[in-house]
């Protein structure tokens, strides 16, 4: 998961006649070094081998996403569900029915600028709109990826082959 804040620039935000909030562009991913618990990387509460590294579930690991990988993945963050809190929306990790959780969507345009991935956002669900009015402004991108060891010394791992799953208000 990558966490960021919704773009608060007034010129980028507006409500329509239905009361839906539109954010013209907001950062949802970055090339910054991210920190993850080992259990978040492996999906296990037991130590696991990842690229020759035994990943402990309660230890923090640093992961970076190179610019070229973020650019390759950008289109997979278009038209993703916006959800109120994390809920994996496909595969064996959920019931597979995004309609139960979706309270908005990302837009049809994803663009990488200055090491950040920006997408438009449209919040439509009653609960998520109320949380926004209550001041909750943090977004977390959820995605699948592969890992390899990072030989640059900047992080423990490099994430590649990213595919967006959802964007959560957290």
Description:
This protein is mainly beta and 170 residues long. 12% of the residues lie in helices and 45% in strands. The longest helix has 8 residues, at 126-133. The radius of gyration is 16 Å and the shape is globular. 27% of the residues are buried. The model has no long low-confidence stretch (mean pLDDT 89).
Q: What are the key terms here?
A:
single chain; 170 residues; mainly beta; 11-stranded mixed sheet; two-stranded antiparallel ribbon
Brief description of this entry?
The protein has 170 residues and is mostly beta strands. The protein is built from three helices and 13 strands, in the order E-E-E-E-H-E-E-E-H-E-E-E-E-H-E-E.
List the helices and strands and how they pair.
Blueprint: E1 2-5, E2 13-15, E3 21-30, E4 34-37, H1 38-42, E5 48-50, E6 53-55, E7 60-64, H2 67-73, E8 81-84, E9 102-106, E10 111-113, E11 116-123, H3 126-133, E12 138-149, E13 157-169
* Share in β-strands: over 45%
Low-confidence runs of at least 5 consecutive residues = none
How large is the count of helical segments? 3
Helical amount: 10-25%
Number of strands: 13
H and E string: EEEEHEEEHEEEEHEE
Coarse structural class: mainly beta
Let me know the largest β-sheet: 11 strands, mixed
| Rg over alpha carbons | 16 Å
Assembly state here? single chain
Mean pLDDT: 89
Shape, please? globular
Cα distance spanning the termini: 11 Å
């Amino acid at each position: 998961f990558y966490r960021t804040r919704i773009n608060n620039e007034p010129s980028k935000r507006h409500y329509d006649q239905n009361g839906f909030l539109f954010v013209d562009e907001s950062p949802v991913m970055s090339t910054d070094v991210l920190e993850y618990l080992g259990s978040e990387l492996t999906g296990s509460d037991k130590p696991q081998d990842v690229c020759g590294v035994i990943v402990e579930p309660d230890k923090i690991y640093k992961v970076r996403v190179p610019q070229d990988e973020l650019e390759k993945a950008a289109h997979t963050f278009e038209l993703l569900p916006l959800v109120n809190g994390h809920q994996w929306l496909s595969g064996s990790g959920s019931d597979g029915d995004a309609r139960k959780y979706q309270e908005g969507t990302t837009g049809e345009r994803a663009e990488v600028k200055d090491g950040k991935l920006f997408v438009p956002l449209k919040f439509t669900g009653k609960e998520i709109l109320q949380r926004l009015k209550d001041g909750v402004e943090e977004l977390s991108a959820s995605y699948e990826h592969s890992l390899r060891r990072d030989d640059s010394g900047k992080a423990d791992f490099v994430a590649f082959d990213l595919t967006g799953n959802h964007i959560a208000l957290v």
